[in-house]
Fold this protein.
Amino acid sequence: MKKIVIQDKEFKLSILSANIKRSIERMAFDINQDYEGKEVLFICILNGSFIFASDLLKKIKLSCQISFVKLSSYFENESTGTVKELIGINEEITGRNVIILEDIVDSGMTIETVTSKFKSMNPASLRIATLLFKPQAYRKNLVIDYVGIEMPNSFLVGYGLDYNGYGRNLEDIYVLEENEK
Ligand code: IMP
Ligand code: MG
């Protein structure tokens, strides 16, 4: 099994890019069906979701726009429990069909904060699409509408996900060798 080293940590191959691609195609298929005839505003949560958002958008056949917001709750490889401010919303949200794009939902704190901020802006509808979901780590009740791949509770890098800012460029996803949280 292929291994890589990023700074002080060793990671092993977990999800091949071909499998990521298939999951994204399935998500796009579902979204295209569910929103047929409607217009969608996608909101990409930076930084981690930029590659996922890019690949998903290329498979969306709907009339749509995309906007990028930033909110970081993660430090190194453990959730810090502090969620920062949401920045970068320039579009009108009221009355629009919004789909939030996340790279990964872990404890759910980030997605809950982002969702409640957007709900307060009165969208016509609001759904969440995440490439990766860790059900064992999830501590919220919020329904995640579109999930690409469910993962065990271990730290991941690649395909937009980082360790200390590194590893976002990897086309496959890797899992930390030790530390089964
Ligand atoms: P949550 O708030 O605990 O759900 O964490 C969500 C955010 O933490 C995501 O948007 C990611 O940026 C980051 N994150 C969560 N799990 C991982 C991981 O395994 N690797 C890299 N980043 C992660
Ligand atoms: Mg993120």
